[in-house]
Write a structure and sequence with these properties.
Chain lengths: 330, 298, 333
């Protein structure tokens, strides 16, 4: 099957005043099939949002290709790009800043239809009502302004706005990070329900591994502009092979385990600057397994079972420092 | 697993100590600001005097009513007469209209040019920004008074050319402000969201970003009126005013040689200018503070 | 051991000009030396207000209307402002969620740490500098000598939070209130900060009040837990008890809402796991239900719950919940 979204060697660099540049996204490739949800996890500054914005063509890539269905999204400009926008929509992280404070809820959800001239003008109000119900809001709330909604309700509005054009792909950039656990659960369940009902495809960005495991079919782990490990969800959580993935897994805290994780695997330090990324493995400075080879040479991408790709010199050779993974590997 | 049924008929509007409607909050904050209210009263006084003045004080400002240089409190002229024996009060009332009109019109011109240039520069960035900012800088480093004088000398000293000249030299500040606002707002998520919703550039500039950028620009426009009034006065003082139309600047300019003998001929229109500019800047500051939530919290 | 900080039946209200809304209603908490109390609850439940009441830093229009807050026997609510200033940053200090806004942007790291030491311990010059350096070492900042001269904006989020902790610890306080200290940080950095806090606590016997909405953080750090909902403490007890045997429908709901990471062999069945939900949301101030405040969102709510405020029911050793139906918990989630 041909993938719905095919991204090859995507690079986004932000030039700085002094002539150098921020290598925010530095050569990522991935495919997403129709009906799948592709999760991207990684820490702050790893380039997740920039990847999302490049997919949405809100920033311009310096290299690489983005193909959506049969369209060469990365190469389109101006009006050609604009008329394609109904095919892919986005849900932003902050439900407070992603709604225009001057537009009523109904106008906000209707705006994409008007701007892109989708459907007969008379049918649009009905479509908006439909979307309100689909995301669990009463259509009467259409006349309210964003400041009259709570955070969770605003995120529902944003989801309604993203879905109103019947897009093929929805890019969600940390849609639940700004929300409380209880509201987060409501929104995650809503996204899951809508995906099944409308056969949607998601690119879902998060810094929370548990959330990604819950919602996604595939996961990519991003570090300093690169994907260090990509795999189907079950494969990744059963047998992750990259030390950075391990460190994220070890740092995740579970409410079921009240013993302090003093002897849990931890990495030291913080990610280096994306302005002059290290030339070997970018994780080498923090990786407890790093060798001189790691510091000198870029690790090759090795492929394991069912599309499990790992960029580490020693992938498959190291024993996972997490008991669950080690037990499974044995 | 419970299904979400939280479908509010009306979302809970902010209660308790949360701010009410932004517009109401703005008015409250403005009303709490004493100096802004004083400014507003002064401004009303100035506007009332210049526009309703002729109804109550019906004296021809261009004709001689008494001897020249009669001090204020005289029999025919309550605020004295000028070097031609014309009534000072009538002159100030009559001149106010021209002065305010020049100020307002010049401000409109500078704000329109400023917003146009600033918004394009801030919105598109890149080489468009660089080019437009070069032009702006060029106008900013020119000595503005000199430039305006040159323009007026070439095109003649009429009220229209003076207004155009002032407008043409005072837009760069507005342009810089508009550019900064556009750069800030352009990056906001909801602007990006509108772009992904299929908005064209013109829609984004005029329907999405401009309304959000307007409040500080309105304040800037107000201050531009004050600046333009001072500018007009300055030019008239140097003898570059329109000699056929009474304005505060012109009164000062024509009487400046007699400052020591008849202080009131220069001082009184000066006071009028001072009060007007002060009132405008107080009101402008008041609006600015009320719009700025950080200051408002204090 | 005797509690170092004891909050009893704390009531806080906010004056909207028209009426006074209840913000906290009868919150009681205890902090023991060397132990951590986790305070959990959704946004707007009053966690920060509890902390700010204790620090004597309630925002305008908020006021304590009842109860007591005792620090080593001294009633903080009766303390004069001068006395509170003396205690703040000295006997009791606070770590905020956003270190960037809590640090002074125009002062160097050294000045900010030295300032509290000078203020509270009368140390000056070289001595204060020495303490600043020692504190930076204690919070494990790499090359601390070079960092003394740094300004907050020159540091990463994790480093800033370490500096905040250094400032909070500089005077060896008896109590530290940490209001979501790691919410703005990455998980790997959060792990480092938590480890650091625990190590420092072991050395200094400081009592910590850890405010968070993350039950994972509670499980990791806390010894005791208090669950707040709409200004009331709905459940409290030892962490193991609360998390393995939650006795309030709200706590149960929070547990069910939290997605779990399933690693290794457990990953295979993760896909079938659903995520629980608490319908609705925390009511805003002034809209709290009269009887049980959780009733509109509670699966167990019956007529009595809507009519009468529930009592505090003991459900285990040191464990109690504010609910009419503590014996029916198996029916929830
Ligand atoms: N417009 C920009 N100009 C310069 N640098 C930028 C710009 N946008 C992002 N960056 C930099 O690019 C890198 C990647 O940023 P990005 O926002 O994509 O990270 P992220 O993974 O989404 O992080 P977070 O979890 O904090 O949202 C960061 O170092 C960031 O500082
Ligand atoms: N400065 C303030 N002015 C007015 N109301 C406030 C202020 N700060 C908090 N509130 C209100 O007081 C109530 C309790 O707030 P509090 O900050 O204690 O919540 P919290 O549990 O700390 O939530 P969060 O997780 O969002 O920090 C909330 O309803 C909140 O809206
Ligand atoms: S390549 Fe080396 S440094 Fe990089 S993750 Fe693998 S072991 Fe660690
Ligand atoms: S008292 Fe009733 S409504 Fe309140 S939490 Fe208990 S069961 Fe639910
Ligand atoms: Mg991001
Ligand atoms: Mg808080």
């Amino acid at each position: 099957m041909k993938p719905l979204l095919d991204v090859k060697d995507l690079k986004v660099h932000f030039p700085l005043a002094n002539g150098s540049s921020v290598h925010a996204v530095d050569g990522v490739s991935f495919q997403v099939n129709e009906g799948d949800s592709f999760g991207i996890v990684g820490e702050s500054g790893s380039g997740k949002s920039t990847t999302a914005q490049a997919l949405m063509r809100l920033v311009d890539p310096v290299a690489g290709s983005i193909k959506l269905d049969k369209h060469d999204l990365g190469a389109l400009e101006g009006e050609a790009l604009r008329t394609l926008r109904h095919m892919l929509q986005m849900v932003f992280q902050d439900p407070y800043s992603s709604l225009n404070p001057r537009l009523r809820a109904g106008q906000a959800v209707r705006e994409p239809l008007d701007l892109m001239g989708l459907g007969p003008a008379r049918g649009r109000d009905k479509r908006v009502d439909e979307m309100f119900r689909a995301v669990g809001l009463h259509p009467d709330a259409k006349r309210l302004f964003p400041h009259q909604f709570s955070g969770g309700q605003r995120q529902r509005l944003c989801i309604a706005r993203a879905m109103v054009t019947e897009p093929r792909l929805i890019v969600c950039d940390e849609p639940v990070s700004a929300l409380d656990v209880a509201i987060q659960a409501q929104i995650l369940n809503l996204l899951k329900k809508l995906q099944i009902e409308k056969h949607l495809t998601y690119v879902f960005i998060s810094h929370d591994l548990a959330v990604v495991q819950h919602l996604c079919t595939h996961v990519a782990v991003m570090y300093l502009g690169e994907f260090v490990e990509t795999a189907p969800t079950q494969e990744l959580f059963a047998s992750a092979k990259h030390p950075y993935t391990w460190s994220l897994m070890a740092a995740a805290l579970s409410p079921d385990d009240t013993t302090p994780s003093t002897d849990r695997f931890t990495v030291t330090g913080e990610p280096p600057s994306p302005i002059n990324p290290p030339k070997g493995c970018r994780f080498a400075g923090r990786c407890p397994f790093a060798t001189d080879t790691c510091r000198a040479e870029k690790p090759p991408v090795k492929t394991f079972a069912e599309g499990h790709k790992v960029a580490c010199h020693y992938a498959g050779e190291l024993t996972p420092p997490l008991p669950e993974l080690a037990a499974h590997a044995a | 697993m419970t299904e979400t049924t939280s479908a509010p008929t009306a979302a809970p509007e902010a209660t308790g100590p949360k701010p009410a409607h932004p517009a109401l909050e703005f008015l409250r904050a403005f009303a709490r600001n004493q100096s802004a209210i004083i400014g507003l009263i002064l401004l009303a006084l100035v506007l009332g005097t210049t526009f309703l003045g002729p109804v109550f004080y019906d004296v021809d400002p261009y004709s001689m009513v008494d001897m020249p240089f009669v001090a204020p409190g005289g029999e025919y002229a309550p605020l004295g007469t000028d070097y031609l024996g014309r009534d000072m009060l009538a002159g100030i009332i009559e001149g106010g209209r021209a002065t305010l009109a020049v100020g307002a019109a010049a401000a409109v011109i500078s704000v329109v040019i400023g917003i146009l240039i600033g918004s394009l520069a801030g919105y598109f960035g890149g080489w468009i920004d660089a080019a437009l900012m070069k032009v702006t800088e060029f106008f900013q480093i020119l000595p503005t008074l000199l430039l305006a004088m040159v323009l007026v000398t070439i095109f003649g000293a009429t009220l229209v050319t003076i207004t155009l000249a002032i407008g043409a030299v005072s837009w760069p500040q507005v342009a810089r402000l508009a550019r900064a606002e556009f750069m800030k707002i352009r990056k906001l998520d909801y602007v990006q969201a509108a772009r992904t919703a299929g908005a064209r550039d013109a829609y984004l500039i005029f329907r999405v970003i401009l309304p959000a950028a307007l409040p500080p620009l309105v304040v800037a426009a107000g201050l531009a009126v004050g600046a333009a009034i001072l500018f007009e006065a300055g030019m008239s003082f140097l003898g570059l005013g329109d000699p056929n139309t009474m304005s505060w600047g012109l009164i000062i300019g024509q009487n400046r040689n007699y400052l020591l003998d008849a202080w009131w001929t220069v001082t009184l229109p000066g006071v009028a200018i001072f009060i007007t500019v002060l009132a405008i800047s107080l009101v402008g500051d008041g609006i600015n503070d009320a719009l700025n939530p950080k200051l408002r919290r204090r | 051991m005797d509690p170092v900080l004891e909050i009893t039946d704390l009531k806080v209200g906010v004056d909207t000009g028209r009426q006074v809304h209840s913000v906290l209603d009868g919150v009681s908490l205890k902090l023991t030396p060397g132990k951590t109390l986790g305070v959990v609850g959704e946004s707007g439940c009053g966690k920060s207000m509890t902390a700010l009441s204790t620090m004597g830093l309630l925002p305008d229009r908020f006021a304590v209307s009842g109860g007591s807050i005792k620090l080593m026997g001294e009633d903080l609510l009766a303390a004069k402002p001068a006395r509170m200033r003396e205690l703040r940053g000295n006997a009791i200090s606070m770590i905020f969620q956003e270190p960037m806004t809590a640090l002074n942007p125009v002062l160097t790291v050294e000045r900010q740490i030295a300032e509290v030491v000078e203020l509270h311990q009368g140390k000056t010059g070289a001595e204060a500098r020495e303490i600043a350096l020692e504190m930076l070492r204690a919070v494990q900042i790499p090359s601390p000598e070079d960092r003394l001269a740094a300004y907050p904006h020159e540091l990463s989020g994790g480093m800033r939070q370490r500096v905040m902790i250094a400032i909070a610890l500089a005077c060896r306080p008896k109590v530290i209130i940490a209001d979501e200290p790691t919410t703005a940080l990455d998980v790997t950095v959060q792990a480092q900060i938590f480890r650091l806090l625990r190590e420092l606590q072991d050395q200094t016997e400081t009592a910590i009040m850890l405010i968070t909405h993350d039950l994972g953080a509670v499980a990791e750090m806390a010894d005791e837990v208090a669950v707040l909902y709409a200004g009331k403490c709905v459940e409290s007890g030892p962490v193991r008890e609360i998390l393995s045997n939650p006795s309030h429908p709200y706590t149960r709901g929070l547990m069910a809402c939290t997605p779990r990471l399933r690693l290794g062999a457990a990953a295979a069945s993760a896909a079938e796991e659903g995520l629980g939900e608490i319908p609705g949301m925390v009511p805003p101030l002034g809209r709290f239900p009269k009887a049980c405040r959780f009733a509109p969102r509670c699966a167990l709510a019956d007529a009595r719950c809507h009519a009468e405020a529930p009592p505090v029911v003991p459900t285990g050793p040191d464990h109690s919940a504010l609910c009419w139906h503590t014996n029916k918990m198996e029916q929830v989630a």
